[in-house]
């Protein structure tokens, strides 16, 4: 009975160990890491503008914008400076911060619908009774 309980305990803890091991993206010893300046030069070569630089899960993590202006989050192996993971931040997340306000076309770039509500473009006249 005691052996069964020990075996069940070990089996129950195995998934937790796998989940923790999954977070370790970069495993190079600290003595093999390239300098922060070298990582910043690699980011510059990719055309990135760096807003934040930190170490996460043993990797260099860079947050900023790519050459087209899109927000990025990139993880680099600190020993090789090779990209481990790259994420583009969606604009939809920003919409949540503004109360889901969407404006797909700036004002004045699309003609108003021909449904009688917008008339000839003159300001509306209000009449108070």
TrEMBL record:
Keywords: Signal. It comes from Roseovarius ramblicola. The keyword Phosphoprotein does not apply. Residues 6-86 form the PepSY domain. InterPro entries: PepSY. Residues 1-21 form the signal peptide. It holds the Pfam family PepSY_2. Residues 84-129 are annotated as: Disordered. This is PepSY domain-containing protein. Residues 86-97 have a biased composition (Acidic residues).
């Amino acid at each position: 009975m005691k052996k069964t309980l020990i075996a069940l305990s070990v089996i129950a803890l195995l998934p937790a160990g796998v989940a923790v091991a999954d977070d370790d993206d970069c495993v190079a010893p600290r003595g093999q890491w390239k300098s922060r300046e070298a990582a910043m030069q690699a980011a510059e070569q990719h055309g990135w503008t760096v807003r934040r630089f930190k170490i996460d899960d043993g990797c260099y993590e860079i947050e900023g914008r790519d050459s087209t202006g899109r927000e990025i989050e990139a993880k680099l192996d600190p020993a090789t400076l090779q990209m481990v993971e790259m994420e583009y931040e969606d604009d939809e997340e920003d919409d949540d911060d503004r109360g889901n306000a969407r404006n797909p076309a700036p004002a004045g770039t699309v003609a108003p619908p021909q449904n009688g509500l917008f008339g000839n473009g003159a300001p509306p006249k209000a009449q108070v009774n």
